[in-house]
Design brief:
Chain lengths: 589, 589
């Protein structure tokens, strides 16, 4: 079972959940006309389905291999990447001034979903490059930008992010890699980094590493970290890759999933020191990293959506074809397709409802990021910034959590066949698992939401968000078709409001109580907002044609969410609004 | 990180959640004295931790391999199995008349948990043998029993269950393997079976296959299936393995997990037909299989508990050792162990609460099976049979679902390290995934609960079960320590009562509505009953010594379940008590 890019569903979400049209109409992205958007989605869908999806199995089976100190990617990956970057996909949302196409992040988000659904291990590489573009574009010196940015935007060279060290994962303040100043203004970098995604590979003739390290006089902790650009090959006078820099891949991890993506142990300065160039100011490296964090977290959230969509498509195809037993309504001879069994329909509907909700949240985040960059009115820009700040941890954690849940359901729909690797459902399950961990574990996301985002503007940002959810649901009460669902959808919104008051109060004098409920608080928030995503889709569908199958499916998906997913999520408030000792969390393990 | 059998926790559950002591005191299992039980647990724990646990990694990495038509198990497995069976573990709960030790299934359940926690792929083999003992002991002719039963009870030979065919998985009525009668009273079997666990291996000199097939005159569907015993080697006049039978392993599956357990495609009758012997009556094979179903489902449920316990131990050890960041209460220098972070504590507590609840439900099922076999009073025997019937799908599905959930949390606690295969957390996640599928998928379990178990005695069995849950919680209301938790624990019990009334009414004239909610109904039932399991542990712990760390942990685990797990589960009732169309399940996918 291969992947068919769900272009119609994606376009529907871009229009009715986010608002791509108004980004163009308001003049923020004048070039993102409906025609351009449609053409982009169509072409991206075709490339994803036809060129990338077929790579996914070999990426898993053969994987990336280390030969000597060079990583060789799986069969066909080089050619696919060459054609993908040649088609300009890498720079879709990069500013035109950097050589990009300057299209909205929102449109790029839809494309990222498709690349990653086709192959998460393949789609991951460009995410890192896009992050490097972001960091270098915002903080790099003119000389550095001139030398590297164009190549990164085009995708001719790829970028990496070198943060993690064995003792410094979630806590980057603990990192030990060091940098020494040289008289020529460059630096020499020494240290070992682990878990470096696409740290080495054969897709491009050069690789641009962004590396966090400490200068000798650096303050301790996170305020003493600087960011350096360390190319794999130093450039000659014409800016072409020339001499090998003192950086190498010393090993590849043997991972549960995304085998096609090389996860490298990188050694900097094994000999004379790796030549590096400062990005931004000394000791301000973490701030530079934070500028790209929102985008990267959105991108990883989209990986969750992507793998969920892929798993859903595969389970749906299997459920239509596989016959076992006779369902109650089966009138033909022989066995019914298992999609006729209510329990299988439930699993498929849960997969669909979670996938569509997560997609909508990610797209809303992308739109907020677009508006935070381009809105002319400072107040609207700030609102968009705040919304993006709030949605970032919610979208990242929820979408990657449901990526795991949906991929697991995908196996379950297949029964025993799902446990056999050749079926492919198991690969999605294995691949999905990392997205809840990297780019800030989902626990870190929940802590970010509770301790930094909920208190924004003394709680006014969150209060405004909740009011927005309520407003969006208001039209339902007056619509006979949806009036019965409105109270169910309001349950998590009301619960979120109560839980938010608890969290804000707890943060003042008993932060452990707020932290203890961070994970369910994030889930509650996502389900409340996800309900609004599905309500937008269903209301738009009903207004267009409630009898058309695709539109009916959107209405039915809302029914499923409202009756099956919203009430248990609302009940999470009980657990959030407890002190941590009462929740048993002070126990002696 | 290896496995330390949690003998004290297991013994506590055997005494305070189930009631092993009274099985002995009432004379049902007079030989199961406290001393014997303690010695059994101690020895089993030692064997599991010291001999089996070290096999688990190579079982995964090397796996079982097919060489020619013979399966070779991973290094060390032959020796470990030899010593395990020589120690008498295989026949622990088999009747003394068959050469077993005649100890309670309840005690064996504790041992099964330990074998499977040490290595699920290793522990799985004996489960099949125990099933074969069950089927043959109940339905085999005296001659068959004389020839095969003793060897199976001792574990000198292992057994298999050959049910599944490509077109016949959950729906066994569709199977096509055929049997022909021969004049000597034997049969010849022809057909292909897939997904046959331990279908071939080198652990024992003979393998006893139990095979479902159709006779030529058989009625269609499930009422035309017969059960045959087909040995790998036919026996000579002295009953020793002699000539190879016409059955072979044609291939091994490449699976997501349990690589150490060979999953075989078995070909019967490739040449002259595999010699088989009828077990039970012609066309009554499925009834024979059903006699062993409860035990097998319990055993698979115990695999869920086992893998959850294993994953919990590993995550706990990592969380104690790994240091990142500084928790709020951290007063020492450097970083705090991550177990000090509330979100990590939450994950560990969720792992623990789910594991202990699932263990308790499985043990209660085992006790019910013991009482259904040996209670002298027919009314009590029937009560026990009914309880076992009810608990079987609940324990199997819940324990294996939480096996997946806990193993996934186990990865999450490890962060990026959890995604690396060498860590071992990923293996538990992969291994766990099959238990929700085999021995009846968890969807099949939910359907069994709703359509066959809830209606038992016109709903009186379920009503009695719910009343029992209420009774068990009653002492809490009067205890200051627990009074606040009682209403939270009653939420799912009340919800279960309402949902049960809905299901019973729906079954009468709109079964699809009952089936649509089967999965959440099962979950609700398990969480309601699991709360009582944890309440029993906590009340016993408080009565003994609430300040002892192990006892305090039991009390805290109840707090976690009551505040965090019970309320969302109770809210599942909203979704169950909807017609399937209103839940969106009539959609056009």
């Amino acid at each position: 079972m291969t992947y068919q890019a769900p272009v119609a569903d994606i376009a529907f979400a871009l229009r009715h959940v986010a608002d791509l049209d108004s980004l163009q109409q308001e003049g923020l992205y004048p070039e993102a006309t409906p025609d351009v958007a449609a053409a982009v989605l169509e072409e991206a869908g075709r490339f994803a389905s036809e060129r990338i999806a077929p790579l996914n199995r070999d990426g898993d089976r053969v994987g990336a291999r280390l030969e000597g100190h060079g990583v060789v990617t799986a069969p066909g990956w080089r050619e696919a990447y060459r054609d993908w970057s040649a088609a300009g996909w890498n720079g879709l949302a990069a500013p035109a001034s950097f050589g990009g196409q300057g299209l909205p992040l929102l449109l790029n988000a839809a494309c990222l979903e498709m690349w990653n659904a086709a192959s998460m291990a393949f789609g991951l590489g460009p995410l890192l490059t896009m992050g490097a573009v972001e960091a270098l574009g915002s903080h790099g010196s003119p000389a550095l930008r001139a030398a590297y940015l164009g190549k990164l935007v085009s995708g001719e060279w790829m970028g990496t992010m070198n943060l993690t060290e064995p003792q410094a994962g979630s806590d980057l303040g603990a990192l030990r890699s060091r940098a020494e100043r040289r008289d020529d203004g460059s630096y020499r970098i020494f240290g070992q980094k682990i878990f470096i995604t696409y740290g080495d590979h054969d897709l491009t003739p050069n690789i641009v590493h962004l590396v966090l390290a400490r200068l000798p006089n650096a303050p301790a902790g996170t305020r003493g970290i600087s960011l350096f650009l360390v190319p794999k090959y130093l450039l000659d006078a014409e800016g072409r890759p020339d001499r090998r820099n003192d950086v190498l891949c010393a090993g590849l991890e043997h991972k549960l999933g995304i085998h096609g993506s090389p996860t490298c142990t990188m050694v900097f300065g094994d000999k004379e020191g790796a030549v590096g160039y400062l990005v931004g100011e000394e000791h301000r490296g973490l701030a530079c990293m934070f500028t790209m964090m929102n985008n990267a977290r959105l991108a990883v959230g989209l990986q969750g959506v992507a793998i969920a969509e892929r798993a859903y498509q595969q389970a749906l195809a299997y459920a239509r074809e596989r016959r076992q037993g006779r369902s109650a309504g089966w009138r033909e001879g022989g066995m019914s397709p298992i999609i006729d069994h209510p329990d299988v329909r439930r699993m498929l509907m849960e997969m669909r409802a979670k996938t569509v909700a997560a997609r909508g949240l990610c797209y809303q985040l992308a739109e907020a990021l677009d508006r935070s960059r381009r809105s002319e009115d400072p107040a609207r820009r700030e609102d968009a910034q705040n919304l993006a700040a709030l949605l970032t941890p919610v979208a990242k954690a929820f979408a990657t959590d449901i990526g795991n849940e949906v991929a697991s359901l995908g196996i379950q729909v297949h029964g025993g066949t799902g446990f056999i690797e050749e079926t492919g459902a198991a690969q999605h399950f294995r691949d999905a698992r990392i997205a809840a961990i990297y780019e800030g574990t989902n626990g870190i996301q929940a802590i970010d939401l509770v301790t930094r985002k909920v208190p924004l503007g003394d709680g006014r940002v969150m209060a405004g968000f909740i009011a927005g959810l309520r407003n969006s649901l208001e039209p339902m009460a007056g619509t006979p078709r949806f009036a019965g669902l409105a109270p169910l959808l309001l349950q998590p919104v009301d619960a979120l409001e109560r839980a938010t008051a608890f969290v804000l109060a707890a943060l003042r004098d008993r932060p452990a109580d707020a932290l203890a409920g961070a994970a369910p608080y994030l889930r509650l928030c996502a389900v409340a907002a996800g309900g609004v995503v599905l309500a937008r889709e269903a209301m738009a569908a009903a207004a267009i044609d409630p009898h058309d199958p695709a539109h009916r499916r959107r209405i039915d998906t809302l029914h499923f969410h409202a009756t099956q997913i919203a009430p248990p999520a609302a009940a999470l408030a009980t657990g959030i609004m407890r002190d941590h000792a009462d929740a048993g969390l002070e126990t002696v393990f």
